[in-house]
Task: inverse folding
């Protein structure tokens, strides 16, 4: 099994604290950022960063739906880590200043991929597909908090 990774980033016209606070707001802002690939969104515990437990289904393709139950931690300032209790998937959101009134938001997801020919296709296509989904989330985030 090889590890699969999908990463994308965006410069957002808002300060890093505003961007991070929006991402960490699972009871409010976060659900507004999610495209149609996400369904059954539900905050089960907490709701603001560290200590949040959130559920959603992620439909990456017409046939692939992942049931996610994510524990949220904040290991360092400007970083949210979402660990899926149902799989090896871990998504890390990192927000850093990028000049006056601007922030760099980076999202990276890693998981243990399948073996064999299925794993080959997963390693080849899944990062691009997930990258497109998270590009949409980052676009929505920029619209939500941007100046």
Result:
């Amino acid at each position: 099994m090889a590890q699969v990774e999908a990463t994308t980033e965006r410069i957002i016209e808002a300060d890093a604290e505003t961007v991070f606070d929006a991402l960490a707001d699972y009871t409010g802002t976060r659900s507004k950022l999610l495209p149609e690939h996400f369904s059954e969104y539900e905050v089960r515990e907490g709701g603001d960063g560290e200590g949040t437990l959130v559920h959603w289904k992620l439909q990456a393709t017409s046939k692939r739906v992942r049931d996610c139950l994510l524990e949220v931690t904040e290991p360092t300032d400007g970083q949210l880590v979402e660990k899926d209790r149902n799989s090896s998937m871990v998504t890390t959101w990192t927000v850093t200043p990028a000049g006056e009134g601007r922030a760099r938001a980076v999202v990276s997801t890693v998981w243990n991929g399948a073996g064999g020919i299925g794993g080959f296709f997963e390693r080849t296509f899944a990062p691009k597909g997930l990258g497109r989904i998270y590009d949409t989330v980052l676009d929505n985030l920029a619209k939500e908090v941007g100046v």
The first strand starts at residue 3 and ends at 12. The CA atoms of residues 92 and 128 lie 17 Å apart. The beta strands are 3-12, 38-45, 53-59, 65-73, 79-84, 90-97, 103-112.
